[in-house]
Amino acid sequence: MSHIHIPDGVIAPIWLLLGFILTGLGVAFSLYRLRHRDLKELVPKLGVVCALVLLAMSVPLGPIPAHLNLTVFMGIVLGPWLGFIAAFIINLLLGFVGHGGLTVVGINTLLIGLEAMFGYGIFTVLSKQMTVVRAAALTVILTLVLSNALMLEVVVFSGVDPSHVLAHDEHDEHDGAKGPKDTDKGHQDVEKGLKEQSLPAFSGKLQLNSWPTLAKAILPIAGTGILLETVAISVLVNFILRVRPDILGRDGGQENPEQI
Amino acid sequence: MDLAYIDNLAVNGHGPLHRAGAWSKLVMLAVVLAGVIFSRGWVPLTTMAALLVVLILVEGLPMLKLWPFLGYPVFFATLFALAAQGWSFLSLLTILRSLTAGLVLIIVLATTPYGELFQVLGRFLPTLVTDGLIMTYRCFFLLLDQLSNHLKALKLRGGYSGLAFWKNVPRVAAGLGIVFIHSWEMAERMYCIMALRGYQGKLGLRTASTGVCRYDLWPLVWGIIFGGVVIGI
After folding, report:
1. How does pLDDT run across B55-89, given as a tens digit for each residue?
2. Most-buried pick from A29, A192, A223, B175 (CB within 10 A)?
3. Whether residues B166 and B96 fall in one domain
């Protein structure tokens, strides 16, 4: 649900680079946590779950162009570390089929990977307090609210030039000997810079007060998506619980939580 | 996006780019994407887009059938640009960037089988990720077959309607559940097969192109041309 459908050339390069660096670190750490696991066991499960998520994204649900994501389900089934790697694989493949840009793979992996990780963590805690299906439903709602908020921040801040934020520190250094009025002018310059900035890739005027406007525009779409995903994953979890409960770790078939 | 159609074009095509190695086409892709990100004006972007259209025609790729694949990136770029910039020259520039990026991606995908792409990526990515990519690609078509049969059965029995949105969701989810159980069991069988065949990592891919050949000059020359357009204009 929080996958950014932004093609190449829209987001400023600094954010793209940051996305890739953090994704690289995330994948490296996930591989480190999985170093003692058997590759023969991991690769088929990874392939099958990633393929299912890709399939879910390509099934239309009616007249509106909405689709399921199943990333929270992916986190519940694969665990946090394999879930993060699966998020990277899915986004790389989506980039190579034109569903979102290749340069935003890093940012999207962070969003969806964190969704899978949060999903696993919240589900592990909630499933001890209530029935599995209720825990799954609540997990989806909480995780998607968090990840949509994160996605909103990424979309808004990807239009802000960080050098204007850093300029705040420079002003403080230079204005150290001056009085409060000059410091206020420094603050005003930074605010102006944040409001009107020009980047090579994204030369636009993104006003800080667009946050509420953007949130209001996204809210109905995000709300519908969260409801959709909750119903779908609840039905899916309920079905799997009746047929193969070991997949959800009900028979101890999942990754040992102590290893997290 | 019809993966099977694109894959068919990539495997059965006979243009100069089809004979070039995946690595040289990825270099061309990287140059164009860098140009898309760092270009400041409409002239270099329009020139690159026009040259890419020329390349599509030279390669003999079905232009009319490939244009719909650009709809997705252009649509979302338009949404984002209009939301952030309104109707302005800058929003047109944003749309032009996504169009140019989409064109080069279409050219690379329609001339490079996915196996070759993964083979090149496998030199930079960890074993688990590369093997995961290959396995995902293979499983995607297997599950697609299963899911389409299931959806067909659902429609025939009146369980899937184009307009009954909220009824479709739980039914499709239950269908995904059946497909998931089958695929999970398939994964468990694969584990046994891989263990029997001595898998220790690195799924081998045998592809037609090996190393560097004279056909690699073609995409590299185009990459230099695109680089020149970005720097020079």
Report:
1. 999 988 888 888 777 877 787 778 777 776 667 77
2. B175
3. no
> Which tens digit of pLDDT belongs to each residue from A8-37?
777 788 888 999 999 999 999 999 999 988
Q: Domain limits of chain A?
A: 1-161+244-260, 163-197
Residue A232 has a CB neighbour count (10 Å cut-off) of: 26
- Enumerate residues 39 to 68 of chain B having a beta carbon within 8 A of any beta carbon in chain A: 39-40
Look at chain B and report how many structural domains it folds into: 2
Tokens at A233, concatenated: 């994953």
User: Could you tell me which of B83, B76, B121, B84 has the C-alpha nearest to residue B101?
Assistant: B76
Domain assignment present for B40: yes
Report the alpha-carbon distance of residue A140 to residue A142 in Å, rounded.
6
CATH label, A1-161+244-260, candidates 3.40.50.1220, 1.10.1760.20, 1.10.8.80, 3.40.640.10: 1.10.1760.20
Number of cross-chain residue pairs from A and B with Cβ atoms under 8 Å apart: 242
Q: What residues make up the domain containing B217?
A: 3-113+209-232
Please state the rounded mean pLDDT for residues A78-93: 94
CB A3 within 8 A of CB A88: no
Same domain, yes or no: B58 and B95: yes
**Segment 137-196 of chain B within 8 Å of chain A by CB:** 137-140, 142-144, 147, 151, 162-166, 168-170, 172-174, 176-181, 183-184, 186-188, 190-191, 194-195
pLDDT, one tens digit per residue, over B155-195 is: 888 877 767 767 777 787 788 888 889 888 988 888 888 88
- In a domain, residue B155? The reply is yes
Q: Is residue B201 assigned to a domain? A: no
Select the residue from B29, B48, B128, B202 to test the A interface by mutation, using most A Cβ atoms within 10 A: B128
10 Å CB burial of residue A142 (0-12, 13-18, 19+) is: middle
Regarding whether B141 and B73 lie in a shared domain, the answer is no
